[in-house]
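Exercise 3.2. Students should predict the tertiary structure of the chain below and write it as C-alpha cells, then compare their answer with the key that follows.

Predict this chain's 3D structure.
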Amino acid sequence: MVEPLAFTDPRRIGPYQFEGRLGAGGMGQVFLGTSAAGRKVAVKVIRPELASAPQFRARFAREVESARQVGGFHTAQIVDADPDAASPWLAAEYIPGPTLQQVVAAQGPLLPDAVLRLGAGIAEGLAAVHNCGLVHRDLKPGNVILAADGPRIIDFGIAHAPDAGPMTHTGAIIGTYAYMSPEQIRAPAQVTPASDVFSLGSVLAFAATGRGPFDASTVLAIIHRVTSEAPVLNGIAVGSALHALVCHCLAKAPTGRPPTSEVLCRLAVTAPAAPPVPTMPPVTPPLPATTPVDGHPIRRRSVLFGGLAAATAVVAVPAAFVLWPKDTPPAEPKGKPKASKSPERDITRPVGELKGHEGNIESMAVSRDGRFLATGGYDTTLKLWDLTARREKTTFEGHTNAVRAVAFSLDGATLYSGALMELLAWDANSGAAKKKLAAYRSEDDFVRCLAVSPDGKTLAVGVGGRIELMDPSTGRVRETLDGKAGSIDFSPDGKTFASVAAAADKSGIRLWDTASGRLLKTLRDGEDDDYSEVSFSTDGKILIANGPGVLLWDVASGRITRKLTDQHGHLDSAAYRPADAGTSGKAIVVGGGRFVETEKTDTVGRTVSVWDVAGGNLVTTLVVGDPKTPMRAYIGHLAFTPDGRTLAGVCTPAAGEDGIEPSIQLWKLP
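Answer key:
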C-alpha cells in the first residue's frame, strides 16, 4: 500500500524522485521512487543512527553487492544502491500488489492448497537468496508481495552473509520478533539459512490461520513463546501435509529443520497444479464464513495462487500521491472568501532552539500548563523538554519504531505516545513506562495522531483506518469509528471532535459526537479537500484546516469564512492562537510549510506566516536562522503554549542538506 509522503520525508535521493511511502522497518523507511525514465523502484533509506556507524556502512556495502546476485522469479531484484551517501540507500524492483499481511487482514486465512502454493513460491525465493550465501533475516507476511504472477520476497535491506559477523552496532537486533528463529533472538550474528526456514514456517502458519504461531501481547511474551513454547497452530488440520511441514520448519533447533531444497521438494509433491493466470482481475463473490479460529469467524479466499491478480481487486492499493508542491502559487477558490492580502516583510527570529533527536522529529505536544513540551522522533525516542529552562528534561526509550504521535494527560503527569503497532503511557516525572495501552496486530496499524479530551476522560487514537475512543487510564476502547485520521482535535467543551485524514485522502473534515461516536457532519471546500491538520479556536466557533493555504470554517454553519495563503506551496501545520489577556488581543493564525521552489531560489520553507484573523493580513513572518543565508529546511507541527505567548515549531532539514540538525524552534509573539 502506498501512503502519501509525510512533510518530514525526503523528496528525492540519488536519481530517484519519491512519490510515496511503502513501509518502515528496523533499518529504515521504504519509499516508492521513480527514475528519470519513469521506472518504479522501492527505495530503502537507512536510519541515521545506523548510517553513523562506520562498521555498518562497510558491512552494508558488502551485503548490497551480494544481494545484487540474488536471482529467481520469486524475489525483488536489487537495481541500485549508494552505501556511501549521507543517508545510505538501496533500490529494488518495485512489485505492485498487496502484501500477504494485507490480504489476510482483508479476507482472512487462505485455503490449504493456496498456502502450499504460496510456500513453494517463497521457498524458491529463499533458495535463490541462500544460493548466494545470504540469509534474509526478516521474512514475514509484510515482506511477501502477492503479485499477479506469484509471490515475491521483498526487503533485502538486511540480507546477511552467515559468516560475516555482526552487521550493525552492538546490541542491535534486526528483524521482527514474532517471525524470528530462537537462535536469531539469542545470537543474531550467528544466523544461518535454517533461520529463514523457521520464519517460513511462521509465515505459512499466519497464512493458514490468520495469526502468527507465537503471537502475544508483549515483546517479552513473544520472545518467550518463540524460544520456549510450542507453536499455536489452531486452524491447520493435524496430520495434513501442511501441518507436518509447518511443525518441521518450526523446530527449535536449527539442525531439526528441513533445508530449503527439501521444503521445495515436499511442496512440489503436495501442491496441486496452479490454475491459469486470468488476463483481467476477476470479480470476487461474497465469501462464506468458515470455522472460527480463537473464537473469531474467518473468511476464505476463493482464489488460489497462480490467479493472484484477484488479490489486487480485493485489497485496494491506492495510487501514490505527491505532496511536494508544484511551481505554481495556490489557486483561489471560485466563489469563496478572498485570500489574505500581500505579505508584509516583518521578520521575527526564534528566541530559543531545542536539539537532541538523532533523526527527524515526527510529533510534538505542549502540556496544558505550558511548562513542558514533548516530542517524538524517527530515532524511536520520546523526549520531554522544560520550556522555562529551554533544555531537555527526560528521554523515554521503549518504542521500536518512529514515534508518530504524542499527547499529555490533563494533569500533565502522563505522556501518551504512539508508533507502529503500539500505544504506550509514560510517567512524565520519572520517565518510566507505565502501561502498554494497546498492541496492534496489523503492520498497517500506525498510530498517526492522539488527542485528549478537555475533561481528560477520553483519548482519541487515529490508528490504521479507524479512530478509537479509549479510556486513557485502562486502554479500554469504548467506540471504534470508521475513518482514517492524520489529525484530531477536541472542541473546547469536549462535546465534539474533528478529524482529518492524511493529506492525500481528500475525505474532508469530519465532526463527531464525543459521547456516542456518531458522525455529525462532513466539511468540504469542494476543490482541494486536501488537509494535513485540523484544530479548533479557543471559543470553539472556528475550525481551521491547513493544506494549500489555511481555511477557516464557521462550525455552526459549516461555511468557509476565510482562506489565508502566502508563498508556501503547502502548509504542513497551522495553529490558532489561544486567547489570553496578556497577549495583544488580536486573534491570529500561524502556518508553516514549504516554499514553492523556483529557478531563483532553492530555499525550502523555514518560515512561519502569522495572519491577523479579522483582516486576513499577513502581519509578520517567523524565520529560522539568518534570512539572508541559503538554507534548505521546512517547518511543521506548530503549537502554542496555553498563554499564547510562545510558539513552538519543528524544523526539519530538506533531503541532502548537511549541517542542519532537526530541532524545535521557539518564537515569542507580542
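Discussion points: The first helix runs from residue 48 to 51. Residues 352-668 form a domain with the Methylamine Dehydrogenase; Chain H fold (CATH 2.130.10.10).
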